[in-house]
Amino acid sequence: MLFTDSIFIIGLTLLCIVYFLIPKRFRWMLLLAGSIGFYAYSGPLNLIYMAVTALSTFLITLRIEKMAASAKDTVTAHKSEWSRDEKKAFKEKAKKKRFRWLVLCLVLNFGMLAVVKYGAFTLHNINSVIGWFGGSKRLPVRRFLLPMGMSFYLFQTMGYAIDVYREKYPAEKNFARLGLFVSFFPQLIQGPISRYDDLAKGLYAGNGYDPKRVTLGVQRILWGYFKKVALADRVMPAVTALISNTDQHQGMYVLMGILYYTLRIYADFTGGIDITIGIGQVLGIPITENFNRPFFSKNITEYWRRWHITLGTWFKDYLFYPISVCQPMLKLSKWSREKLGKNVGKYLPVYVSTVAVWFVTGLWHGAAWNFIVWGLMNAVVILISERLTPLYGRFHKKFAWSNTRAYDGFMALRTTFLMGLLRMFDCYLNVPLTFKMFGTMFYKWNPQILWDGSLMKLGLSKPDYLVLGVGVLLLFTASMLGRRGSVRERLWEKSRFLSCCLTVALLLIVVVFGAYGIGYDSSQFIYNQF
Amino acid sequence: MSETLSTIIEILQDLHEDVDFESETKLIDNKILDSFDIVTLISELSNEFDITIPADKIIPENFNSAQALANMVEELEDE
Fold first, then answer.
1. Residue A464's closest CA among A237, A261, A303, A280?
2. Is the pLDDT of residue B67 over 90?
3. Residues 6+ apart with CB under 8 A from A140
4. Residue A493: inside a domain, yes or no?
5. Record: contact B58-A321, CB cut-off 8 A
6. Residue A388 lies inside a defined structural domain of this protein
7. Counting C-beta atoms within 10 Å of the first and last residue's C-beta, which end of chain A has fewer, N or C?
8. The complex's ipTM?
9. Which residue in chain A is spatially nearest to B44 when comparing CA positions?
10. Based on the structure, what is the number of domains in chain A?
11. Facing A166 at nearest CB: one of B35, B38, B56
């Protein structure tokens, strides 16, 4: 099911009405029923995977919590008899036991993801290696259908399990309530990957009807639909045309493809997240923001702090830091300090962890080499940028003009273009082809396509370009205005009437400018496939 | 100023020479230290004080100031 399906829109409207009519204490149960219904609609079998995740996490986190409490009681009971070293040894032993349970939870759940998402890819690569060495036997490759949103709800739930192990908060004692955290329907399409302590309170609070909150939420939903159906879906035919005929569409076409795809992925992903957060706002459930005007970033590191924020922070907290501070890494650091010098030892952990994390980030996006290369290329750019930081510092000190708003704008454009270039791997879905198409930008000189009408043959007409142009202008204006806080909130405070006008205007824009037409079928959200 | 604190300030100064680490109390909240700095810092502290800083100690409260870092180091040394 998509956010753009009429059955979703009807179901959501009904759910919201019933949500505000029933007593507060039943509201979270309605959300759970709605979430299960929503997910079952995507494929009843998918519910089995989700149930395994919810149940295993529920039981194991309760077990971990019980073990932690029991260990504390034991230490307290032997406070006067045990020496400091004895206490320390006991605590370490108890922690190791809890860690084993956590590992079981992680292996079971990530194992499921590995089989479903990466099984075929791994076997296919093993077969290729066998072939390279002249072997004739091949392992049978079986492909599974990836359950919708699995990469999102699984990461969210495993984050919860790790946090309980770290004693950040107590484990949820009610299975149904944890089930709602795992399955909350607006997040199942494409995240964000929320933290339990951020999301749970809102989920179970059962907040009542608040005209302001509901109006602002509906506006956010409509803004999301505008991005999705008027911009992302509208530019889609041009992206498809460019990648499906790569012999013809080279040189300047590739550059245009980068622009089209950048717009598509931005409007698609942020639009979907706007709808998710808007639904949460209507229901009184705060959902973590996943974007912070990413195309205003001055460098790629800053960009990744502002794009798909919840995935970035997940990887930082649960993978980057643990890898960086693990014993083997510290030993490597110590060894390199002694053998290769202080500077190498100092930075080695961070560089190794960065490459490892970006390798996994690439894999998270898809079981294919193009995503892995995309991830590693990000790591390379980030590390080069990191090494050049002192040089940038000297540059900005020496040249005053490099500290102006105009230069900030140049840096933002440069970052956006660089990210667009890297996304070519994601767009062409083939590593050699991506390099080939990148190369054509340098030797295939065809700037005339910009004015000789060639761009009109990509499935986009003049009115389409007009809508896209105005749409981009609107996105830019909204981003600029949003720097001083929520535009919708300010408008509501200024005038309720104007706020209602904005809601109607957004609704009309979605209805009039959506890329509908005969045989219209809204495309799948890009991130839903990850 | 304790010896631990002055060593930590020295290490921090090596990362960002233009920051007044004696008075700054929002190193994480104000984004002065990023994740690269934090990992480099952990590697330096582990080496200097011969301690192990587990991942669950990497929270803003422990890294927001030189004093908070010193408290964490002393706590880990005591354990």
1. A237
2. yes
3. A123
4. no
5. yes
6. yes
7. N
8. 0.85
9. A346
10. 2
11. B56
Which pLDDT tens digit goes with each residue over A336-366? 888 888 778 778 888 999 999 999 999 999 8
Residue of A nearest to B51 (CA): A330
**How many CB atoms lie under 10 A from the CB of residue A484?**
8
Reading the block at residue A375, the tokens are 């991830």
| CB contacts, 8 Å: A333 with chain B | 43, 46-47
Alpha helix (H) residue ranges in A366-486: 369-387, 389-398, 405-422, 424-428, 431-443, 462-481
Q: How many CB atoms lie within 10 A of CB B16?
A: 14
**Chain pair A-B, CB pairs under 8 angstroms:** 54
Rounded Cα–Cα distance for residues A64 and A70 (Å)? 10
Q: Establish if A505 touches chain B: CB-CB under 8 angstroms.
A: no
Residues 13-32 of B with CB under 8 A from A: none
Domain range B3-78, its CATH number among 3.20.20.70, 1.10.10.10, 1.20.1250.20, 1.10.1200.10? 1.10.1200.10
What is residue B69's three-state secondary structure?
helix
pLDDT of residue A133: 86
* Rounded Cα gap, residues B77 and B71, in angstroms: 10
Residues of chain A positioned with their CB less than 8 A from the CB of B46: 325, 330, 333
User: Which of B40, B52, B55 minimises the CB distance to A350?
Assistant: B40
Yes or no, beta carbons of B47 and A333 under 8 Å apart: yes
Domain that holds residue A138: 6-208
DSSP secondary structure letter of residue B25: -
- Residues 6 or more apart from B61 whose CB is under 8 A from it? B68
- Taking contacts as CB-CB distances below 8 angstroms, the residues of chain B near A168 are 56
pTM: 0.90
For residue range B6-55, list pLDDT tens digits in order: 999 999 998 888 888 888 899 998 888 888 889 889 888 988 888 888 88
Give the residue from A149, A219, A208 showing the smallest Cα distance to A182.
A149
Yes or no, beta carbons of A327 and B52 under 8 Å apart? yes
Give the whole-angstrom CA distance, residue A383 versus residue B53: 24
A198 and A71 housed in the same domain: yes
Cβ separation of B39 and A337 shorter than 8 Å? no
